[in-house]
Amino acid sequence: MNEGPCQLTLFAGLKSFTSGRAQEDLRIRPVTRVAAIDLGTHNCRLIIGERIGDVFKTIRVQSTIVLLGEGAAKTGSLQPAAIDRTIAALKRFAEIIDDEDVSEIRAVATEACRMAENREAFIQTIREQTGLDFEIIPAREEVRLAVLASAPLIEAGNIMMFDIGGGSTEVILLDTAGTALRVLDWLSVPLGVVRGRDAMAADEVSAEEFQAQIKTDAKIFTGFFEKNAHFFKAPVHAIGSSATVTTLAALALGLDKYHRARVDGATFKTENLLTLAREVAATPLDVRIANAVIGAERAEFMIPGCAIFSAIFSLAECDNLTAADRGLREGILNSLLPTAPKVVFSGQGG
Question: Which residues, in sequence order, are CB contacts of 331 under 8 Å at separation 6+?
Answer without folding.
Answer: 144, 145, 146, 147, 148, 149
